[in-house]
């Protein structure tokens, strides 16, 4: 068996020399995640909050949660990642989400930012996945790097069924089934993890 390579100390020293330390190290590991939503009945807002909770589980993540009409240009500049969601309308994104997408800077301002989507729909086959894909298509047009959930069961993002049994609240209140909130948290966590690696 041969002994340790003479180059090992050199390689270790080189890695230490190029690795960021101090404030620079913090800057590299930090990631800004912007969660934007349109909500009519509060179901989508609950999903947005779950996405944000998942992102916050990742070390270094700074998260903002804003409604579509509360997003300023500074928020978009600040963001390293954008997670966008809304309720399904006619098997597509809502007009409010479409309007928000139309306001994104088309001059490269969103290029290389991470993008992801979530949606809510009244029924099991009400178009949630179509809305997710439509959102991702728009993000690709802006040069964003799109990601889905952590496995094939949420490949296009996170969605929730809110108006059809057995997922409705028997008391008539606003409720999102725990399984869907778990999907949203997992999506937020993955977005923050991928963003950290890319940075």
Give structural notes.
With 199 residues, the protein is of the alpha/beta class. It has a single domain (31-198), classed as Flavodoxin domain (Rossmann fold, 3-Layer(aba) Sandwich), CATH 3.40.50. The chain has seven helices and seven strands, in the order H-H-E-H-E-H-E-E-H-E-H-E-E-H. Strands 1, 2, 3, 4, 5, 6 and 7 form a seven-stranded mixed β-sheet that branches. Strand 3 and strand 4 form a beta hairpin. Helix 3 (43-56) crosses helix 7 (178-198). The chain starts with 7 loop residues before the first helix and ends with a helix. Mean pLDDT is 86; it is low at 1-28.
Concise synopsis of the structure shown:
The chain has 199 residues and is of the alpha/beta class.
SSE map:
Layout: H1 8-18, H2 22-29, E1 31-37, H3 43-56, E2 61-67, H4 73-78, E3 81-89, E4 92-93, H5 95-103, E5 114-121, H6 128-141, E6 145-146, E7 158-161, H7 178-198
Parallel strand pairs: 1-2, 1-3, 3-5, 5-6, 5-7
Antiparallel strand pairs: 3-4
């Amino acid at each position: 068996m041969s002994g340790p390579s003479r180059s090992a100390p050199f390689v270790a020293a080189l890695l230490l020399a190029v690795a960021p330390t101090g404030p620079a190290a913090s800057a590299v590991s930090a990631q800004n995640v912007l969660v934007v939503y349109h909500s009519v009945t509060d179901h989508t807002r609950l999903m947005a909050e779950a996405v944000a909770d998942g992102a916050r589980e990742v070390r270094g993540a700074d998260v903002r949660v804003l409604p579509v009409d509360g997003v300023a240009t500074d928020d978009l500049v600040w963001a390293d990642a954008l997670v966008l969601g809304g309720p399904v309308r006619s098997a597509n994104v809502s007009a409010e989400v479409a309007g928000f997408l139309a306001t994104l800077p088309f001059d490269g301002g969103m290029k290389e930012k991470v993008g992801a989507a979530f949606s809510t729909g009244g029924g099991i086959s009400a178009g949630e996945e179509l809305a997710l894909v439509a959102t991702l298509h728009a993000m690709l047009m802006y040069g964003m790097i799109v990601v889905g959930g952590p496995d094939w069961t949420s490949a296009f993002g996170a969605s929730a069924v809110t108006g059809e049994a057995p997922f409705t609240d028997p008391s008539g209140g606003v409720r999102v089934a725990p399984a869907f909130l778990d999907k949203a948290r997992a999506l937020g966590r993955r977005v923050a993890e991928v963003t950290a690696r890319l940075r």
